[in-house]
Amino acid sequence: MRKLIVQQWVTVDNIAAEEDGGLSFVSAEPFSETTNNAFKARVMGFIDSVDTMILGANTYAQSKGYWPYADDQGEYGEKLNNLTKFVASSKLDDAPWGDFPAATVTRDPAATIRELKGQSGKDLWLWGSLKLMHSLQAGWGIRAYFELTVSREVAMWKRGVAEVDVNREAPARAPPQVALD
């Protein structure tokens, strides 16, 4: 069975989007001779492990004007643009992606993800899309793997990966024990 990998870029203080939904803290610079080789290998390994990208309507709207035209992104951009794409939206009728195949619009992302997980192929990539991710966490009953890429930025916004009530007192409990071997 294919895995659903939810990938988020976050700041060091767990913020995944600015208050206006912006992502100025995310680096989308193309690889260059100064790119850390381990980072490049991890990113390219990841894009090679998936064949389907799932986006929420907002992430799609932010991405469609850049990625299909990002020739400077080289091999990574080419692979990203050629992935099969689904956009979860109750309003969109179509989801063009430049000169690449258009994304398929789904009104029922939970059913679509379940169906895709049961098909053969590489893993599925849910990219950004906080509302979609929170719906997934809230009880769709779909197992997902979360990958957080941490930016060096520190933010003071309130749109984090985890919905946390900072005014609530944390329950008293011992921290979990983790084996490091």
Could you explain how this protein is built, in words?
The chain has 181 residues and is of the alpha/beta class. It is built from five helices and nine strands. The chain has helices at residues 37-49, 57-63, 74-81, 109-118, 130-137, and strands spanning 4-10, 15-17, 50-56, 84-88, 95-97, 100-106, 123-127, 145-150, 159-160. It has a single domain (4-24, 41-160), classed as 3-Layer(aba) Sandwich (Dihydrofolate Reductase, subunit A), CATH 3.40.430.10. This is Dihydrofolate reductase. InterPro entries: DHFR-like_dom_sf (IPR024072). It comes from Arthrobacter ginsengisoli.
Features:
alpha/beta, 7-stranded mixed β-sheet, globular, 9 strands, disordered C terminus, 25% helix, Dihydrofolate Reductase, subunit A, single chain, two-stranded antiparallel sheet, 181 residues
